[in-house]
Amino acid sequence: MTAPYRPLTAALWMTGSIAAFTAMAIATRAIRGQHDTFEILAWRSIIGIVLVLALATAMGRLGRITTRRLPGHVLRNAVHFTGQALWFWALTQIPLAQVFALEFTSPLWVILLAPLVLGETQTRTRLIAAAIGFCGILLVARPDFDHVDPGVLAAAACALFFALSVMMVKRLTRDEDLVSILFWMCLLQTGFGFALSGADGAIALPTASTLPWLVLIGLAGVTAHLCLTRALQLAPASFVGPIDFARLPLIALIGATFYDEPLTLPLIAGALLILGANWLSIRSETGRAATAAPQPKGHNSVTPRH
Length: 306
Description:
Number of domains: 1
Shape: globular
Distance between the termini: 29 Å
Helix content: over 70%
Low-confidence stretches: 295-306
Number of helices: 12
Mean pLDDT: 83
Strand content: under 5%
């Protein structure tokens, strides 16, 4: 059930993913101290199950949820849950822009590992775009190697887990329906979340003040992964991953506006480099897709060089 290669459409789906992940970060900041990381993940996943089942029912696709790839779903979600837990915790410890900057080393892992894990062909432009984006990330993060904050380590570690998760999703999309992928994600992560949040003998229930934020986190989580999974159906993982870099300048502006986090010259310069890397990647992949597309009979065209 492989979808056609449509890089521009994939980029549009990633825009939805970027908006949803940003909303999730803001909502997490709003309830820090009232729910721990595992409780947030558990309640988010319960809300996600309701949303996915409602979506599947409305689309007449409940029958697409199967157990034939269950081991793959369990492995993928164990990896993804670990990355999510590290990400949510880091959001409460260090500035938003720094969390996102370190998280965005994930596409570099995807680009480096995709040829080995997925058998994707590597291109020079993808490597150049990743290098430019990484330079932008270093400008934003400005890591201090003399004093490593635990929040920084968590944000950096989550990147590797997210990269592995993205590649596992890419493998699942080859013969698994989107609804099934989302359903198993929410169900399995509900179990993981409650098992770990209950380890201390207490699980904080949603309150009138935290419930709206938890609902937003749940809605944003399903939306983000729906958009990301659809993008991965339409384009290679090593193309989709770097597009997420655009989330960094957005969250930096939000952090400066609402949380008094500094909007510095290196941050602005890094954001511009990241956006430039995305433009280069999208332009190159769009050209490759147009070149690879079959031409109608009798149609004469000049093949562009890249």
